[in-house]
Specification:
This protein is α+β, with helices and mostly antiparallel strands. The chain has 3 helices and 4 strands, in the order H-E-H-E-E-E-H.
Length: 112
């Protein structure tokens, strides 16, 4: 068989899909200037789904749409692939943090 048709040296992708992952679009690389340690992007929207093909990926997919905050324009989709237990842990952690923030705001009283 021709070596062009064999895939001996390619990394196994299946293992990647069964872990909790975050995927960043390649275009986001160009959004971060060389002389800057990073870029602040505004969270524009969140959505997700529970695809019915868990053999090929995590059972929960969360899509975060982030956009530029400065003079540059652009939107980027950041995808999180989560196993069920990780999705539940993330939801519980966010709920707990929101409760803490709400309690702190209530303790400070109304803004003057």
């Amino acid at each position: 068989m021709s070596t062009e048709l064999t895939r001996k040296n390619l990394p196994a992708r299946r293992g990647l899909f069964h872990r909790n992952t975050m995927a960043f679009p390649r275009e986001l690389r160009q959004a971060i200037p060389d002389l800057h340690a990073g870029r602040v992007l505004e969270l524009d929207s969140i959505n997700g789904r529970a695809p019915d093909f868990s053999l090929f990926g995590p059972p929960v997919e969360l899509k975060l749409v982030v956009k530029e905050t400065g003079k540059l324009k652009g939107e980027f989709v950041v995808v999180m692939g989560l196993q069920i237990d990780a999705a539940r842990k993330l939801a519980a952690t966010l709920t707990e943090l929101a409760d803490q923030a709400e309690q702190a705001a209530t303790a400070r009283g109304p803004a003057a």
